[in-house]
Amino acid sequence: MDINEIIEKLKDILSSEHPNRKIFDKDVASALGMSKESLSHLKKKNGVPYEQIAKFCAKRKISINWILFEQLPKSLEEETEKYTRIKHFTRINASAGGGSFNYDEDYEYLSIDKKLLDSLYKSNNSNPNAIAALNVMGDSMEPTLLDREVILFDKDNLDVSKGGIFIVSTNAGLFVKRVALKVDGSLELISDNKSYNSDIIVPDELDTIRLLGKVIGKVALV
Predict the structure, then answer these.
(1) What does the alpha-carbon distance between residue 188 and residue 192 come to, in Å, rounded to a whole number?
(2) What angle do helix axes 36-45 and 3-17 make, rounded to 10 degrees?
(3) What is the domain extent for residue 212?
(4) In the chain, at which end, N or C, are there fewer CB atoms within 10 A of the end residue's CB?
(5) How many domains does the chain have?
(6) CA distance 193 to 141
(7) 60, 78, 96 — which closes off a domain?
(8) What is the pLDDT of residue 150?
């Protein structure tokens, strides 16, 4: 990254703002809020005043990536649109009694390729707003889900008629279990790890649990 090339770009921008006069290094320094001596010193070291350039660009609504890397805003938008952000509740764990779940809890954003999310659905079309992420804790779902893996679940998919793995909120805490609907209307909560017994939730007790969504994928550990 050459400071002289960057200065020439800044001169071009300033020239468009002041078409009737020639722009010098001292004008660039002034626009950056620096002394001409400071800018001269940076030129000798090939140093880049990133913070000052960022403020210069923000004031004029110019992409700093264009100034520094010659990346056009349109290309950045196209690249950014490839990814979508989902809420990752990093402080909430499922399968080891993580407690109740509140969508207002602290969360971070996890950026995932939209095509990857779409591939998790037969329709090949996902709704990122309905997808959230949690951490697995414990070994009750091994080998399917491992301790500390991040799982993705669809909050809009609560249909247990065809089975699947769901996030289940119970009086004992938050769990990730394989759920099977029994003929009598009860639900069986199954651990893939055969060292753990299944739990049966009879129809009269269904109001003591809440399904939060179906697990659709995971971010696996290597």
Answers:
(1) 12
(2) 140
(3) 83-219
(4) C
(5) 2
(6) 5
(7) 78
(8) 92
